[in-house]
Amino acid sequence: MDELKYEYILIRFGELTTKGKNKKDFIKKLSDNMKMALSSFNGLTFENTRDHIYIHLNGNDPDKIEPVLKKVFGIRAFAKAYKCENDIDCIIDGALKVTKGKSGTFKIKTKRANKKFPIHSEDVNRKVASAILKNYGQYLKVDVHNPDYPIVVEIRENNTYIMAETVLGAQGYPVSVAGRAMLMLSGGIDSPVAGYLAMKRGIQIEAIHFASMPYTSQAALDKVKDLAKLLAPYQGCIKLHVIPFTDIQLEINKHCDSSYTITMMRRMMYRIAQRVAIKNHCLAIVNGESVSQVASQTLNSMAVISQVCDMPIIRPLVTYDKLEIIDLARKINTYQTSILPFEDCCTIFTPKNPVIKPDLNKCLWYENKYDFESFLQKAIENEEILTIYPDSKLQDELF
Predict the structure, then answer these.
(1) In whole angstroms, what is the distance from residue 94 CA to residue 84 CA?
(2) According to the 3-state scheme, what is the secondary structure of the chain?
(3) Which of 67, 222, 237, 268 has the most Cβ atoms closer than 10 angstroms to its Cβ?
(4) How far is CA 393 from CA 221, 225, 232, 333, 364, in A?
């Protein structure tokens, strides 16, 4: 028995399997996204089929590729695969190779896609399991219910693939198959999680952040950049629009009752976000709002604030409670950055008693008291556009 050398990683699809005639387009996009994510690995080649994508390793270490693949949406699961001939002796030899050195429990599951293969699946299971027990019985035992190593034998048309360790992928759809949206990215816990969930549904995101220098610090803006860096691996890079918002906030404080300042600021943010989104060919706005979490997120407030927008507003966290959001933030590694103590533009101007049931007519009355349109236009004209890369490289870009 020769030494084990993995030559392939087998990629399994998730929801892509439901896409009918469009399935090939989704598979191609997933393959393209993987190629981009794995571009630092030289020599990889990709083979797309209707049921799987095979990554030919060509000498690359699959254990170094695994953490990158975990962040590619559209993958249900993947596994290092040993390829052998459609011959029972070759299959047994391959199974012994992938189980050598392991201890614990195992189960053999054969998938005989090639019905011309002369041995039925259950018989393959028995023959392979018997060989493993004969050779490694002092280390490995059978457990058909909850094995440590569910060993999969896939007998396909031309070859058999044997896998001993399956890794759960990020699932969802490949990023960009659902179009592009503008994420309202604050420095808090919620909005990065909302961006992650949007990307999981195949949405490519750009991000917009409202900065209130000098009331907010450079550290607060750096925190937002760091959050974007943590999200960037899921789609390659993220374009970040930084909007100077101080003058607008000062005008709102000058002309509005303090209880309405958050409502009015949010209305202005939505107006700007929509215009920047349209300019950058985005089809929707994404944010981290959750019903009743704060005063501006009651249903009354959401209705009044979003009245200024014509495009769809996607709220992935709308029914999540805070603990659920924190759990997701920990999972995607944004939580510790989000809780750094640097205030954003909303927290520094928060009134003591914000209105939770704002009146639309009152908002319109406040807005008629000053020329807010000129302030919006000036803010958009003075935006700073950055491209955030996952390797922590920050590059100013002209678009």
Answers:
(1) 7
(2) CCCCCCCEEEEEECHHHHCHHHHHHHHHHHHHHHHHHCCCCCCCEEEECCCEEEEECCCCCHHHHHHHHCCCCCEEEEEEEEEECCCHHHHHHHHHHHHCCCCEEEEEEEEECCCCCCCCHHHHHHHHHHHHHHHHCCCEEECCCCCCEEEEEEECCCCEEEECCEEECCCCECCCCCCEEEEECCCCCHHHHHHHHHHHECCEEEEEEEECCCCCCHHHHHHHHHHHHHHHHHCCCEEEEEEECHHHHHHHHHHCCHHHHHHHHHHHHHHHHHHHHHHCCCCEEECCCCCCCCHHHCHHHHHHHHHHCCCCEECCCCCCCHHHHHHHHHHCCCHHHHCCCCCCHHHHCCCCCCCCCCCHHHHHHHHCCCCHHHHHHHHHHCCEEEEECCCCCEEECCC
(3) 268
(4) 16, 11, 11, 18, 43
Structural contact between residues 265 and 248, judged by C-beta atoms closer than 8 angstroms: yes
Contacts of 148 (CB under 8 A, 6+ apart): 102, 104, 105, 106
Judge whether 317 and 194 are in contact, CB under 8 Å. yes
Q: What is the distance between the alpha carbons of residues 29 and 23, in angstroms, rounded to a whole number? A: 10
How many Å apart are CA 26 and CA 175, to the nearest integer?
10
Distance between CA atoms of residues 174 and 15, nearest Å: 10
pTM above 0.85, yes or no: yes
Residue 15: Cβ within 10 Å count: 14
Amino acid at 38: L
Per the CB < 8 A criterion, the answer to whether 160 and 83 are in contact is: yes
pLDDT at 217: 84
Q: What angle do CA 84, 88, 89 make, to 5 degrees?
A: 80
Cα→Cα distances 324→189, 295, 317, Å: 11, 20, 9
pLDDT tens digit sequence for 145-200: 999 999 999 999 889 999 988 899 999 999 999 999 999 999 899 999 999 999 99
- For the chain, how far is it from start to end, CA to CA, in angstroms? 57
How many C-beta neighbours within 10 Å does residue 361 have?
9
Q: How many residues does the chain have?
A: 399
For 337-378, how does the pLDDT look when each residue is reduced to its tens digit (9 = 90+)? 999 987 665 666 677 788 899 999 999 999 999 899 999 999
Structure tokens that stand for 132 in this block: 């493993």
Q: Which of 276, 106, 259, 83 is nearest to 180 (CA)?
A: 276
204-211 and 180-184 strand pairing: parallel
